[in-house]
Design brief:
P-loop_NTPase, ATP binding, 437 residues, 18 helices, alpha/beta, five-stranded parallel beta sheet, globular, BrxD, ATP-binding
Amino acid sequence: MQKIPKRVSTALINALAAGVVPRIGLEHIAVGRELEISAIAQDLENISEGGAGFRFVVGRYGAGKSFMLQLIRHLAMEQGFVVADADLSPELRLAGSKNQAVATYRELMKNIATRTSPKGGAISLILEKWTSGILSQVAQTTGKRPGEEGFDDQVELKIREVVDHLEGLVHGFDFANVIIAYWRGYREDNQDKQDSALKWLRGEFSSKTEARTALDVRVIIDDETWYDYLKLWAKFASDIGYKGLIILLDEAIHLYKISHSRSRQGNYDRLLAMFNDTMQGKAEYLGVIVGGTPQLIEDKRRGLYSDEAWRTRLAKSRFHQDGLQDYSGPVIELEPLTSEQLSQLLQRLIEVHAQHFKYQSPLSTAEIEDFKQEVTNRLGADKLFTPRELVRDFMSLLNILQQNPQVNFRDFIHSPEFKLEAVEMNHHSDEFAEFTL
């Protein structure tokens, strides 16, 4: 295994031991999913050429949806896309009357990231890099230097060449004016104007009056318009040198859990509008990927299948068979990892752990298989656990062995004290019941 920076291995070990998906370093432990990643890579290529895409990544809790979305996030950033992600929740929706939708937009903007700024919050860095690039370009082409007469006018002309492309899109005129306001704040060394422009772009103005006072702009980003601005961001990103914009929305099961039927339908309608936009070519340089459970899609009473428009778009082909999946369709179903793939995953976890703590790998291939067999025997069947539980238990085991060198591996895992985090079926009448840990 290649050398992993300490900050990356620390994030991997801490996150996996806690049962959550790491934000960085996933490429070091990813196994399987080659067909799924290949399909997404084709989407990214199409998007970079001016197309758009929409995918559902579907699997039960703990099966690897969030891991897959974070892997896509890393892949997209490495290829030069701007990426933004958010986990949906009761407070973060796609449609609503109490700012739940614009709250989702704000979360996306908070998490917006690029290859050079992967942690998020990259709006100001994107604009600064673009502005600095234009300054250098004007200096090279005109021979003038910043501060000389006519230099700023030439820069503004170059900036308008980009933003003029946006004015034909819905709300493009106002978006362009805010970008110009940011440049003017930059030129005048007016930090308040720059901050106001960034605040508007992040959707943080609460009233049109406030926006008009700060920027002379008469609109704000709200629950009704937020998706239009994502399309503008996608086009703008492509115009300033990125491949486009990829939006990742995880935990979409929270849309299914909305108890009020009209509100739930409103969110499904907004999702459908996003789907239609991308699939029919109305959006450019934009990819949307949604993570959810089979319940969200297939429940005919409350899920997307309860809506005829959605059902006809997502229904499986009559040629669909178990073990065969059409990866060009809108739904990617995450199949369980094979026994061989699980062994590869555990081996990679050992390598990360051993490299981080600087010791020789403590387990042989036979002992890895012994651990898997013990898990299967104790939980009854391999379908009763998911990669999340397996990884969390295995990381705990590695920590114990590393901290207690006197412990014998086989004696430990076969002892009654060796506990496993099983996944149990929730048999309560709660209509939202799913697998719980």
